[in-house]
Amino acid sequence: MNLRAFPVVCFLLFCRPVLAAECPQLFLDGVAPGLSAPAPMQRDTLLCNSDFAVMASGVTHEPVWAAEHLTRDAIRSAQHELRQGVFHEESRQPEADRAQLADYQRSGFDRGHMAPSGDAPSRAAQQESFSLANMVPQSPDLNRGLWAGIEKQVRELVLTEGEAYVVTGPAYHLASPAVIGANALPVPSSIWKAVYLPRRKALSVYVCKNTLTPSCTQVPVASLIRVTGVDPFPTLPASMRETITKLPDPQAEPYHVSPKLRRLTMQVMKRFLREMMSGDSPL
Q: How would you classify residue 164: left for phi > 0, otherwise alpha for psi between -120 and 50, otherwise beta?
């Protein structure tokens, strides 16, 4: 599967802006993230939920992005909710475009939330976040450690700042990524989370390598657009996309991964690890 083999259909930094009439409150200035090659731009389905939106790809069977508008009150409500939910296939997508529960079974990879269940302020929102349309194959070491730390760090920022606009998604650095399941779900080379804090106009993108020994850094939005084709905040001035406002580095949350699960992950990734770790781009 060559995820870069999508036609370029525009001449600007982003194209095919999504008309988000159903859930504009989830996007900065009511405008959903823009897409350009190499983002999947065929068979996409916009899914509006109570507290987040997902652009789900029928090509990858995974989200292209998940967007949230987080507020202090919502995060405080989420802190009082138990983490609960049942993973489920997304019935709002065409059947041929959906990821299936069986795709992740014995794969060695976690079903990694893009919009975290920890952000959900209600039981209903929790359950919505467990849709497979909101998941990508994530190494257990990343999902349970540094990535959980980034999700926690963003919630702490919202409690301090009052609100944040957040867009999260996968990056596929390889032309032929590792895949899992009957639907050949591609394993992202990295996972990213773009964060905009309106109060002080702070903007940065966390990027983490999706490997057995994950590491994270921060990059400008311009780098994200070049590699993924996703412009998380199309209404921001172009000048802001070239720089970052350094946000706090995450601390890995305590976690455990069984030796058996780690061996399963290695079986899928071993022939791709050298290529995934080569090159200078954090994405």
A: beta
- Read off the pLDDT of residues 95-132 as tens digits, 9 standing for 90 and up: 999 999 999 999 999 999 999 999 999 999 999 999 99
The 10s digit of each residue's pLDDT in 2-12 is 443 333 233 23
Instruction: From 241, 257, 247, 266, select the one nearest 13 (Cα to Cα).
Output: 241
CB contact at 8 A, 257 and 142? no
**Is 244:252 a contact under the CB 8 Å cutoff?**
no
pTM, rounded to two decimals: 0.90
**Distances 128 to 68, 83, 105, 178, 226 between C-alpha atoms, Å:** 13, 12, 21, 27, 30
How do residues 178-193 score in pLDDT, each as one tens digit?
A: 999 999 999 999 999 9
Q: Which of 254, 178, 158, 168 is nearest to 207 (CA)?
A: 168
d(CA 171, CA 189): 6
Q: Which residue has the tokens 């895949």?
A: 179
